[in-house]
Amino acid sequence: MAADRRIVIENCSIATVDAHDTEYPSGYVVIAGNRIESLGAGRAPEGLENVDRRIDATGHLVTPGLVNTHHHYYQWITRGLATDHNLFNWLVALYPTWARIDEQMVYAAAQGSLAMMARGGVTTAMDHHYVFPAGSGDLSGAIIRAARETGVRFTLARGSMDRSEKDGGLPPDFAVETLEGALAATEATVKEHHDSSFGAMTQVAVAPCSPFSVSTELLREGAELARRLGVRLHTHGSETVEEEQFCKELFGMGPTDYFESTGWLGEDVWMAHCVHMNDSDIAAFARTRTGVAHCPSSNARLAAGIARVPDMLAAGVPVGLGVDGTASNESGELHTELRNALLINRLGAHREAALNARQALRLGTYGGAQVLGRAAETGSLEAGKLADLVLWKLDTLAHASIADPVTALVFGAAAPVTASFVNGRQIVENSRLLHVDEDAIALSTREQARRLARIAAQG
Hints:
The protein is α/β, with parallel strands linked by helices and 459 residues long.
């Protein structure tokens, strides 16, 4: 779209999620090219030139697009397995199957994961992919291709594992890379795919999997690699009590202290889960501006616990939301995490004061953009920012009696997405994807799930 072509959205409620939480009960948004040109109360300015389209958004709430900060797309084809396991037992049960994935499977799984998120309001997505069986093909390229076809803004967190069962880790020996191989492949992926420019559609982060699946050398050298290349760092941290015990037994310290000793705290780092954090851990994250991907549904599914999100926010820790892998959050949707983050955190120490509807929406939008290092570009509706936004339909039976639109979106049933825009380009209309075939993806993912199950059964 040329920079002077415009789309005008009118007659909608708007939650900007800017620094002042500005909201308009009835307002407009003007998109010019791939940017938000203007927004405000009432009708759009008169005399706008080169308007290609006007959208009457009566009955809708417009918000920034949702930002997913943690996921594992390949798990789409192993959903519904090991449903009554904690994290370590779940990993042991599924690693032997995951170690048989190939490029065709990963591409189909990425398509399914991305489609489910995008049709539910996600405009910026990420994938933490860390399983690279020998001879499995170009898995990173397959994931990036699926994201490009879906139309979302995307960060690939190129993961790795080099600590297998023989080294005291959880993955089977044939499921890991060597230290040297992992670092070389990660660097090649960054150099081939990472775009550091404003508005980039594809970025890459360095992402060794977890303390119990990678060596200290991979963590330390991975951090050095990321900083040399100027990209962000991502891993799992403090997810379970068992992980904390593992770190203390193996390294003589808890996860946060261990991460700090290997260079893994800083404003260029974000970690998934962070459920078991004490006051000192939270203070360290706040001091270093280390980000957190909060995954409430997965934390509940795997009985990991309740993350101290209110305390993190009060301390100044950047926090976003994550779906996590669809083998531990079978819905695969981020908009349900707005509601689950609010409700699950109210079961914790802060009870009804833990989170409110607007804080939950901020976690899923601006908070996620902060965590991915993209808050200057997306995550809020402001003039000059990228035109990544969602129109939620709130005038149906599901939300008809809830007066406040943000409350309706967060507390109510999942709202239909009438339209979703990324970079000013519409990717969803009436909860259907515009640029990929959902029905074909459903068929493909089903076939690849069956194929993987057959291969895994053969050993």
